[in-house]
Amino acid sequence: MASGSCACNYISYTASTSPTSLVNCHCTTCRKQAGAPYQSWAFFATEDIRWHVNPTERRVTNGATRTFCPQCGSTLGMLQHGDPKGIAIAAGTLDEGKTLIPLPSHHIFLSEKASWFELPEGDGAKRWDKWGDYNKV
């Protein structure tokens, strides 16, 4: 079981499973929405997530819709239009201690990585320059 919420706790969720993987995305959209050098996404099956209050949705690209809290603005999730069975939950919203969170398996969109951020060596995570490379795995 996993659980989490936005910063103000207006929106919370539970999951019937732990995340299947954790990916650090370095794309410009994720960086700007996270206000950080990357956004960490925890992946779940869509059917495993139960929102106690539904987050607000915003289509950000032709391929994805992001969800967020309308009160505090916290990024909560991302739905890839090509994968309706999966959902990415912003890993920072997960309740630590209550959720088994895996180590990052991939760094993606490194072609858009912030020039001032250096990736850690030896973290064991695979590296991909763009989505097309990662999506083929």
UniProtKB/TrEMBL annotation:
Residues 2-104 form the CENP-V/GFA domain. One of its GO terms (molecular function) is carbon-sulfur lyase activity. It holds the Pfam family GFA. It comes from the Eukaryota. Keywords: Lyase, Metal-binding, Zinc. PANTHER family: CENP-V_GFA DOMAIN-CONTAINING PROTEIN-RELATED, GFA DOMAIN-CONTAINING PROTEIN. Belongs to the Gfa family. This is CENP-V/GFA domain-containing protein. It comes from Penicillium freii. The lineage of its organism: Eukaryota, Fungi, Dikarya, Ascomycota, Pezizomycotina.
